[in-house]
Specification:
This is Aryl-phospho-beta-D-glucosidase BglC, GH1 family. Keywords: Glycosidase, Hydrolase, Signal. It holds the Pfam family Cellulase. The N terminus is likely disordered. The longest helix has 21 residues. This protein is α/β, with parallel strands linked by helices. The chain starts with 16 loop residues before the first helix and ends in an 11-residue tail after the last helix. The protein has one domain: Alpha-Beta Barrel (TIM Barrel), CATH 3.20.20.80.
Length: 450
């Protein structure tokens, strides 16, 4: 993500946790009916017992249920990966299936929500074509059902269901996709979308193709009680040719048009799940209002009124979540970074309030596993909690037992989640989930253990 332009707030004074929360918690908290997590924490790595089916809410769930029983979640990447060689991007086995013990570990921590990314090209190789073609290069076992790209998604949803975890399906395409030529190759990268792919709204990928895809996906999962939401596009960006800072609002208007058609297609498919719409230009909170000049017009797009807007917020200087070099070890300035976080959240919250929106879902946030960064992360989670915004942290890396990424939530060391060192962020999520279940109130959070 490119660095943010200066925001019109000045540097501001250094904020304490109390003053930062006072700034942002003007919304009346939801009347919460907190319930115990659906999976009992087992003994280190033991598979937790799924929630009794009779206790499970039916589809569709209310947003109150979404923001209480399923408020604390994690991203589980893997299915969206493609090979570096774009000539091999067509269903060649690049997706990575998360290991079963990763699901077990989340359930043992009381996590009841996973945001599950996938790639449009894998799921629907040809525009307007069927979903779920066989992936020719995926493994040697031709009887493996996950060779079918749609079945691969369904297999992960089934793993979530078995552990009492709900799923938000997320199309991780950044507003563009590769398109196969007559020979089936997806090597071409001559579009103006992110990574040279073809942007939605371009001649190669018309809006109708995006709507067709979501109509078919929604029909597949409409009656699945484990899938509670469709995040229709991750971080849309570069949806106009030669995009610059001055033309970002034009791209935002293209994105609004695409989102409107996808919303209509999902409802025409009979799906009642929550539809999650991210903001344009990487869903960044800090210039949400500028990048999304007409996103508010979607207010009347969903007759079912199950629409939630989704910002993303990382705390490094350019908000990319990469935390490069020195930033991976500690904030440049704890007070400045905390103040920048609260200012950026205020931009999004002001937009929500101005247009009368109540439902938001924070699809991505994350920080390095250091005390200072996690102090800022915890403050942000408290802001989300008190505004009634469910959150999924990035992310539980699909394979391995160490920290493969600066934001990885996998335990450090140990074997299959057993005997390792818990990350600070996962410990915080566990405390939030446990406190809400034990106290019946979202306002109590036990202190972090030394």
């Amino acid at each position: 993500m490119p660095p943010l332009p200066p925001l019109p707030f000045g540097t501001g004074r250094a904020m304490t946790r109390r003053s930062a929360l006072t700034l942002l918690l003007s919304a009346t908290p939801l009347a919460r009916a907190w319930a115990a997590p659906g999976a009992e924490p087992g003994a280190n790595g033991a598979r937790p017992r799924p929630t009794d089916a009779a206790d499970e809410p039916a589809v569709p769930i209310s947003f109150e249920t979404f923001a209480t029983r399923f408020a604390w979640g994690v991203n589980m990447p893997g299915l969206q990966y493609e090979r570096p060689d774009p000539s091999k991007a067509q269903l060649d086995g690049a997706p990575i299936r998360p290991l079963d013990w990763k699901w077990d570990y989340l359930a043992s921590k009381g996590i009841r929500l996973v945001r599950l990314p996938f790639l449009w090209e894998h799921t629907q190789p040809r525009l307007f074509g069927p979903l779920g073609l066989e992936m020719d290069g995926y493994g040697s076992n031709r009887r493996d059902p996950d060779r079918n790209s749609l079945q691969m998604i369904k297999s992960q949803v089934a793993k979530a269901e078995a552990r009492g975890i709900k799923v938000v399906l997320e199309c991780k395409n950044y507003g563009a996709r590769a398109v196969p030529d007559a020979a089936g190759s997806m090597a071409a990268r001559t579009g103006y979308g992110r990574g040279g792919k073809y942007a939605i709204g371009s001649p190669e990928v018309p809006h109708e193709a995006f709507a067709d895809f979501w109509h078919k996906m929604a029909a597949e999962f409409a009656s699945d009680p484990t899938v509670i939401g469709f995040d229709i596009m991750n971080e849309p960006t570069k949806m106009v040719a030669g995009e610059t800072w001055d033309t970002i609002p034009d791209g935002g208007r293209v994105w609004t048009q695409a989102a409107r058609q996808a919303i209509r297609a999902i409802r025409e498919a009979g799906a009642p799940q929550w539809i999650i719409v991210e903001g344009y230009s990487y869903a960044t909170t800090g210039y949400w209002d500028r990048a999304n000049p007409d996103l508010h017009t979607l207010k009347d797009a969903d007759a079912m009124e199950r629409l939630a807007f989704s910002p993303h917020l990382y705390f490094d200087a350019n908000h990319s979540g990469t935390y490069k070099e020195a930033e991976a070890r500690a904030p440049r300035s704890l007070d400045d970074d905390r103040s920048r976080m609260t200012r950026n959240v205020a931009v999004f919250k002001t937009w929500m309030d101005a247009h009368g929106f109540r439902h938001a879902f924070v699809g991505e946030t994350g920080a390095p596993n250091t005390p200072d960064w996690q102090d800022i992360q915890e403050q942000f989670l408290l802001i989300c909690r008190d505004n009634g915004w469910p959150v999924t942290l990035w992310g539980m890396w699909p394979r391995g037992e160490g920290n493969a990424n600066v934001n990885d939530l996998t335990p450090i060391g140990g074997t299959k989640g057993v005997g390792g060192t818990e990350t600070i962020a996962m410990e915080t999520l566990g405390r939030l989930a446990a406190a809400s279940a034990a106290s019946g109130s979202p306002t109590v959070l036990p202190p972090r253990q030394p």
